[in-house]
Amino acid sequence: MPQRTDLYTVLNVYARKNNSPDIEMEAFIAFLEKYSKRICGERPEWTKWTEETGTRVWMDLNRLAEDKKVQIQHDETGNWLFLPYYFAEQIKEAYRNPDNDSGMPFPNELSMDLEIPQEQLKPIDVSIDLPRLLEEGQKELLPVIKLIFPNERGTALVPPLMIPIALLEFSVLKVRNYLQRHGNREYIHRKLSPQLAGKEDYLREVLDKIMVRPGDSINDLRTGRENSFSFWAHFCSLVKADLNQKKELLAEELGALQATYFIETCSIFFKNKAVRAR
User: Which of 59-68, 157-166, 217-226, 245-254 has the lowest mean pLDDT?
Assistant: First the structure.
């Protein structure tokens, strides 16, 4: 069970244990009371759930329902809870170690062993739908976004609030991992130098930023630094051309390609935004 004893955390752990966002309330209350009485000697913070457990649970549930964190349902079999963010909470955990996962593709249903109901997903084509989402903002999105990458290069499950900035950070880390391997940084520098003629100093600078201060390269995009848009346009075109020629990609290559598609779309969005601001 979790270190935290607030009801919402306990409900999520219980749901995960049962592998379902649907919770039968009588069974949950009986479990919580039994578990709390057993553990409170070692962990006194659980004592609050040892007496009048049902009353306390329902008091907290009403507050959670007002915040739309739970949905209370009644039928002939009894009282049930549905956790609308059950899948989103698991997906958030998949993004907790960005450095460790930088050599992998973005998480999807297969890699996370999840079966998410379609009504819980918002499919977003990275090339077609994502630009519109970035322009319009997030309006009544479902708890989970399913990014679909072009050329059948996989999908990614993403909590809506991660788009675009948090996912940009993960994407740049995947690009950094790609540049660190197999002499890719030297190759990219050599291939882009003719395309960025007269901007060789900036090319070295931006590659250094990606390797050492990836957050700075994201800030350059967000603040409308013109050279940044030029670099990412050429970089994304080069990586896509190279990697899409391959039928089989290493995990790190697929992750970098997915990241490139996302960065490219975001770069165009920020460039258009900067142009409008000027």
Answer: 217-226
